[in-house]
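Aim 2 progress update. The chain analyzed this quarter is reproduced below.
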Amino acid sequence: MTSKTIYQKILEEYRLKQDRIDQIKRAKEKELLEKIPLLQQIEKEEMAYTLKVARKLALGKEQAYEDQLEDFRLAKKNLLLSHGYEENYLDPVYECEKCKDTGFIGSETCSCFNQRLIKEAYKMSNLDKILAKENFQSFDFNVFSDQVSPGQDLSPRENMKEIMDGARKFIRNFEDPEEYNLLFYGTTGLGKTFMTNCIAKEILDLGYTVIYQTAHRLMDLIGEYKFGKTEDLVEAKKKYDYLLEADLLIIDDLGTEVPNAFSTAEVFNLINTRKLGQKKMIISTNLSPGDISKIYTDRVYSRILDSFDIYEFIGQDLRWKGY
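Predicted structure tokens:
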């Protein structure tokens, strides 16, 4: 579901949480032993008694030990209270009581771990700020005209409702390997990017990883890795791997990159590799399918026809309405 790199990063965060909890507990224990010397003596007696009981139980001998252990507990509690400490002073304070800051409940990841994955995925997607404004909750069909233009079968509003149905289907069946990718096309300002962002937020909130890049920036990232156009090749490779491995890759403004043999080959490589890896994509472009067939190779055009549901955005420029 999620990128292994992100998963490992968050596992390390939880390991550090456990280390901090242990450090705090050791510091508190040291403080108490310095201020309440008798506490150390009681703990030594408790440890000796526990070892004695363990040896007898290992030999198969019955041993009643609960009352004695309760006596040790009460003695320590009374010492703490008499010196002005809470009886649970040594109890760890967790950010998440459900998993005790381990990130797991049994073998399943805790909800706090899943939320951390989602938060990291938002950051990695390049969409973390814009999705607070552009989402299905703020989507308004009323900004789309209900008038059918000459040569069209649907009004922009009816057309957008069909696109919305397709978007909901894409989200609902996201894990289905048979579900097609999405290609949105139409002139500038018709809501393609807004709709893409709405879908991205839903996918991110489900716990998947999403990468958003413009086509121009996409080629820069690929070039940095493949041609060594950066001082940090390790980071460049990570970014390139994300393009192939993220659960959803969004390419915005396909066709705005410099068209050449390299960019065409890389577009095909991304589509083909992700298709083989059963990873989803959304492409938005001002190019019509006919334009795509002219600018890119037959292999690119064929892959798009074979694995993308294609939706045209129609109507008038909506940017003055905030879309």
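DSSP finds eleven helices and seven strands in the chain. The longest strand covers residues 248-254. These observations will guide the mutagenesis experiments scheduled for the next reporting period.
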